[in-house]
Amino acid sequence: MAAAIGVLALACLASVAFGARALSFGTVLEALTSYDPGNGDHAVVVSRIPRTVLGLLAGGALGLAGAAMQGVARNPLADPGILGVNAGAAFFVVLGIYGFGISTFLGYIWFALAGAALAAVLVYTVASLGREGATPVKLALAGAALSAGLSSLMSAVLVSSQQTLDIFRFWQAGSLSGRGWDVISAVVPFLAAGAVITLCAGRALNGLSLGDDVARGLGQRVGLSRGITALGVVLLCGAATAAVGPIGFVGLVIPHMVRSFTGPDYRWILPFSLVLAPVLLIIADIIGRLALPPGEIPVGVMTAVIGAPVFIWLVRRRKQAQL
Questions:
Q1: pLDDT at 322
Q2: Dihedral angle sign, alpha carbons of residues 102, 89, 180, 24
Q3: CA within 20 to 30 Å of 30's CA: 67, 110, 175, 310, which one?
Q4: Model pTM?
């Protein structure tokens, strides 16, 4: 854990040092310890701090939510994107833009939380139909179906309104740029509450991983455990998606990587996912800034470019992603 925190600290330091304007680590440390308002390099460093902090928060939220969703669904392919939570948050943001004229990140939060919650409830309700209940396969299928349906509805709304499309397309790609301390202060309470709830669910997720019957036999209230963990996941996904847009692969890749050295114990998987997921998001953001200067590639695109090959390698090496 100390090594993981050290890697995260180095990633954060690199995030404020690298960009369209390259700065030395000495300049970065000088700006952080003895800031001079008249120094242009110091001003650049300070302007990158909110972006780094947001990457830290959003990455941790997505990684933690992905690990918890895999435990709740007993499905190693579960993540906020595959189970439709991100699609629900994005669809409700589109409705907020189209129907209520919402155009600020602060306004996106409540719509994203409502959409994420509704999507989670719908997926679990549909998957619970039938004698077997919410099996991992049915949860994945219900999530995929809901994501496809909401994407179609979202496209219909965007096609009918050019103004909505213009506002939404910058948010949809997933980016850490253009967000300030106002966005961070708005999402921190939701992320903090979601993180506390989810981190405390490690023992419950260990029980759920044994199967519902075994968990009940051990005295665990399966429905309550799933409900409380789902609440934490909704808070994490909704707030993170509202702040940075729908970003995939972070919540899918990192828990698999963490399991390679923690084993199946969620009391370790959850905190390690919280610490290491921001590393992936911040590194992806740095690469996106350096790839096409003076422009940049949105971090949502870069996480897919980086995460997809890594996930394929993990699946082929560990054989963990099987239903």
A1: 43
A2: negative
A3: 175
A4: 0.85
